[in-house]
Amino acid sequence: QVQLVESGGGLVQPGGSLRLSCAASGSIDSRYAMIWYRQAPGKQRELVASITGGGIINYADSVKGRFTISRDNTKMTVYLQMNSLKPEDTAVYYCNARYIRPSGYWGQGTQVTVSS
After folding, report:
1. What share of the chain is helix, strand, coil (3-state, %, to 5)?
2. Kind of pairing, strands 33-39 and 91-98?
3. How many whole angstroms separate alpha carbon 50 and alpha carbon 26?
């Protein structure tokens, strides 16, 4: 079993910053790819950023230059540093861990709201 718990969401003004954390536990190790998704009301879920077990990183075009994904394998935690936030970044952010199973494992999500 794998458990994921996201934290760090909240309300922030445009141009501000937040750091999201996803703490993993259970039968998981550094071979897993870790992925951040987000979903806004009425919109499809979209991939935001990913980092493989080998450290290869990819970002959605909409967040390149503003967001940074990283992982600490000693703590089994993945982070998403979000800078220069925009109202269109408002969404529930989900953490996903994937290795062999195509669907992987999901956390409960954390709300990010960007508003004046």
Report:
1. 5, 55, 45
2. antiparallel
3. 20
What are the tokens at 97? 């861990």
Report the pLDDT value the prediction gives residue 103, as an integer from 0 to 100.
86
Q: Amino acid identity of 96?
A: N
What are the tokens at 78?
A: 């993945």
Task: Give the residue ranges of DSSP H helices in the chain.
Answer: none
Q: List, in order, residues 6 or more apart from 13 with CB less than 8 Å away.
A: 85, 114, 115, 116
Token match 């540093």: residue? 81
Question: Starting at the edge strand that comes first in sequence, how are the strands of the sheet with 2-7 ordered?
Answer: 2-7, 18-26, 77-82, 67-72
Mean pLDDT of the chain: 96
Nearest Cα to Cα of residue 5 among 113, 111, 112, 110: 110
- Of 71-80, 89-98, 99-108, the poorest mean pLDDT is in 99-108
Average pLDDT over residues 35-64: 97
**DSSP-based three-state secondary structure for 89:** helix
